[in-house]
């Protein structure tokens, strides 16, 4: 290990995260260099607008020519924090082709084109690291990829989107409506002006794909992920969950089915308040991992933000720089198991169904018959309200999504059912 | 990377953990070998009594000659799960000298002789891995050593002993006395017949030393750790904590002082029920990490047990085997910062003091005067009971242990103070 080697770094993008990475690389340079075993030198930063003010970063580092960063033969490591699919994808592939190791926080890109990128890095013998892509500063990639590599993960459930967890927390604690809380989250900067990627679960689906691939040593694309967001969750849904001592969370779930396929999905889920994930409030993230030998583990922390994300990226920078210094490379992305994806229809969970019904004798019997006919077993039924306000809250035992879907369809055709108010999944003791 | 290389493993000890490691290495061999990139072969197991029944392990692997395992030139990796200081220390040093990488779960040994062992491994260019030594299956060593290496950790607080957490949980939830719950824990197998190492914080102190060394890139020995156990915690202490909406936990704390020294200690601590550590119940462990950029992270899971500990060891086996295959080595133990240890007297925390006092006018004024004279500022005072049962509960603002000690000494000499019932530390918003 040569103690005086320099490791040159190029960065693509310099927004909230990139600025923090550059500032911290400068501020803590002596310490980070000691840990890496080589002097870390940020050499170039590619940006769209060179004039945009970025405090505390040497102005001479900036260029609008991203290709010149990729082609700089002195640069060892590329940090990609520009986001988006193209040109990030081409630039990363070109950097790998040029023998550079790459660190990216780009979950959307990894979830869509991860297979190509990892293959390219593997063929070239360089590192492609991405701790920041899932759950911000929470170390989850490395623990799953390395610490748990001697175990068999059976299920991962993550609260991996801070915006939706903030909204659901407020709805739970203050009984407010989705639209109302969303507006507040936007004014506080917790939600984007266009909140679609967050509230419809698109961001969480990318992370679910990455987690599922890692956990089950297979290639999983975002297109494999079944997805429902939280925009249709009502204050009534939250209140009903509360009466059952549950809380609604948007979960990214990756699990092995009994026939060794991968079920991967994002949807709102009722979880018991006693579950460790229930206590994850506001914009915090957490990933709950179940493994055969290890049992139940949880990783908790801030899921986003400039400094936390920069922390994850800089951890990768030091790791990758160490590899450069010792002329080695980290473990390659593992996809040997090549498991199939189970379609959502096969996925088995417990369901909660809220029905507006006519309050007259025989209603419950008629409804129970529909469930029985579709082979969905009922765990509990509760009626709230009377007369025209009567509502039935049915919680099923574990049933497939397919059986559930037929049941809902049959229920909605019944004369005595005024409306199927909502259908929600429940994380039960059996699911 | 040669795909067909064999990696031979020798094991020292075969108790609860070792049996699981051997069984899982056999059962999941194909999968673990694929992940390691080489066939993993358990070749020899050194035990004291070769005749002890160990189900599912090939009897021909056992030997009572530990030295023959260390000296086997074919063996690449030694797993040490025999425990104790000697001969584990000599055997590990000999294995390293013979060019073998070592995986150990032996926290007591690492906390006492870690410096020598890591130096030996570093000089020889082999791995010395120990994920299982702290908090069982919870990945905490690798996240601190690698994921957070780009950040600056400022404080780590861990619930790292399952036995004491089980006892404190029962005392909190059921209002029972320490001795009573300890007896139950012993009958359930959660506590040893001689519970000293657990209840007096000795086990936790070893883990605190390992955590502090890792977090602050320095060498920290168990002798540097200030230690108090839980055996003097009373049902009344727990009840008082409860009225303040706090819970008492045995915490292993490692923090940087304002003058960049390391404060490392194990003691019972009142923590607010809203703190993520407060929800860690029964025999579960959790490590709460505060870092400058990442913010607050928590790692939660089972802290002990055969299978969880085996999971951590097997993760290290795969990692170390990968290094053997690619002829590389993991990051060396980092101690460049060489920070000094702050004596406990300098440590600043908030305190709760329970005093039996004479219930007469002027008592509070006299007591407040003692605090003022010692420079300890009072946050709250509450009186419970009247007459001969009067008790004052004083919570201080942040004060040094030294000032606190003088205060307690002065209080105990006062005529109006019948008894200083207890002195407990409080994790306040300021501490």
From TrEMBL, chains A, B:
Keywords: Amino-acid biosynthesis, Metal-binding, Methionine biosynthesis, NAD, NADP, Oxidoreductase, Sodium, Threonine biosynthesis. GO terms for biological process: methionine biosynthetic process; threonine biosynthetic process. The keyword Transmembrane does not apply. SUPFAM superfamilies: ACT-like (SSF55021), Glyceraldehyde-3-phosphate dehydrogenase-like, C-terminal domain (SSF55347), NAD(P)-binding Rossmann-fold domains (SSF51735). Its cofactor is a metal cation. The keyword Aminoacyl-tRNA synthetase does not apply. GO terms for molecular function: homoserine dehydrogenase activity; metal ion binding; NADP binding. Its EC number is 1.1.1.3. NADPH binds at residue 107. CDD domains: ACT_HSDH-Hom. The active site is at residue 207. Pathway: Amino-acid biosynthesis; L-methionine biosynthesis via de novo pathway; L-homoserine from L-aspartate: step 3/3; Amino-acid biosynthesis; L-threonine biosynthesis; L-threonine from L-aspartate: step 3/5. NADP(+) binds at residues 12-19. Pfam families: ACT, Homoserine_dh, NAD_binding_3. L-homoserine binds at residue 192. Residues 352-425 form the ACT domain. InterPro entries: ACT-like_dom_sf, ACT_dom, Asp/hSer_DH_NAD-bd, HDH, HDH_cat, HDH_CS, NAD(P)-bd_dom_sf. It catalyses: L-homoserine + NADP(+) = L-aspartate 4-semialdehyde + NADPH + H(+); L-homoserine + NAD(+) = L-aspartate 4-semialdehyde + NADH + H(+). NCBIfam families: PRK06349.1. Belongs to the homoserine dehydrogenase family. Catalyzes the conversion of L-aspartate-beta-semialdehyde (L-Asa) to L-homoserine (L-Hse), the third step in the biosynthesis of threonine and methionine from aspartate. This is Homoserine dehydrogenase. It comes from Candidatus Planktophila limnetica.
